[in-house]
């Protein structure tokens, strides 16, 4: 999608996450100079397959797998420094050189062990289905104006004073939540002392870096994590993540203005999945749901949790197109549908007997939404070798045309397998 009119492209998930953004970003990063992560943290798990190697990237942009590309962890990300360096070390062990290719925003907030304790204790009562990695409590501290930022590592004495206060508060909260564990000041101080010498050399005003890259005519790819329906404002609240996953979050979280963004690509699976709790109107509760899970390998990349599976939900994607301002769609995992004789597509909802074409705000309404299905013929043939639309079986093309029509956004890519080359540019 990069070209004369598009130098700054945002890639977002347009369902409930796990749409295959990692693969799309990997493919697009080949033509990008800079790849930027702008929200979320180590709860994301982007899977990229190169040859026989599988890379699971949590906090480092997928662009790191292309030697000519630089990567930025933007201010909107909450950074877990321990897992960040574990991830870097894993990349080094696989022969990926990262020196000089990754920068971290001095404004990004730090996820610390106490955030994880709070997350796990909170989940016992709130049951959102979080990954327990401290992301939510870190964003709570950020908006509560008591977070610790990467740049604070420059002043360890001051940071230690702040930590004393934070840990007192965290331990009081843990007690209130009935948790037995407590956060230790020594453990936190030792952690910060250990990571500072490694993290500070990578730390800078990354908004400035992105701005300069755009002004110099470089190609910038912004990589979203999770999906539109998990956005804290637009998602199925309260079963959402704690950040703005939608394209508006890209400007805020990368530290540039929205006018710098040229296009937004929404990634959707050819069907629908969701992990964790909350409504999923087109969930297939029969053996076909289990079949989708098996064929699509629908288990969380980070947590191993089984994903709930169902049919393409056009109400969701139309809504995601609106709140993201999508310029194009990338449909992934078309090959997973290869063996189905018939494929239902949810075109709209009925709620309490009334037709509903717009995605409702409240989960109680959504729980009562009954999808209106149109059944399309399957193709019963393998699509993994298709490299152009013309290579696809006719029924698969009809299926894609219908998705495009229902979503109201042109399809720009179709992915037909995990490998880099298994993609059709439309
Ligand atoms: P992300 O978080 O959006 O990047 O998604 P995940 O990485 O969690 O999930 C995508 C999974 O689907 C990964 O295991 C990918 O290798 C795989 N994948 C991506 N595109 C395709 C595709 O077109 N077909 C198949 N079969 N698998 C795909």
Ordered list of secondary-structure elements with their pairings:
Layout: E1 8-13, H1 21-29, E2 34-37, E3 46-50, E4 53-57, E5 70-73, E6 78-79, H2 81-93, E7 102-105, E8 109-110, H3 113-126, H4 135-143, H5 156-176, H6 185-199, E9 203-204, H7 206-215, E10 220-227, H8 247-254, E11 263-269, E12 272-274, H9 287-296, E13 308-310, E14 312-313, H10 314-324, E15 328-332, E16 342-351, E17 354-356, H11 363-367, E18 369-377, H12 394-407, E19 411-415, E20 423-425
Parallel strand pairs: 1-10, 1-11, 2-5, 2-10, 5-7, 6-8, 7-9, 11-15, 14-16, 15-19
Antiparallel strand pairs: 3-4, 12-13, 16-17, 16-18, 19-20
Helix pairs in contact: 3-4, 3-5, 5-6
The structure holds guanosine-5'-diphosphate (GDP).
The site of guanosine-5'-diphosphate has 22 residues, from α1 and β3.
Structure in words:
- The protein is of the alpha/beta class.
- The longest helix is centred in the middle third of the chain and has 21 residues, at about 155-175.
- Helix content is about 35%, strand content about 20%.
- It has twelve helices and 20 strands.
- Strands 9-7-5-2-10-1-11-15-19-20 form a ten-stranded mixed sheet, sandwiched between helices. Strands 14, 16, 17 and 18 form a four-stranded mixed sheet that branches.
- It has helices at about 20-30, 80-95, 115-125, 135-145, 155-175, 185-200, 205-215, 245-255, 285-295, 315-325, 365, 395-405; strands at about 10-15, 35, 45-50, 55, 70-75, 80, 100-105, 110, 205, 220-225, 265-270, 270-275, 310, 310-315, 330, 340-350, 355, 370-375, 410-415, 425.
- Helix 3 (about 115-125) packs across helix 4 (about 135-145) and helix 5 crosses helix 6 (about 185-200).
- Guanosine-5'-diphosphate binds near residues 22 and 416.
- Guanosine-5'-diphosphate binds near residues 18 and 19.
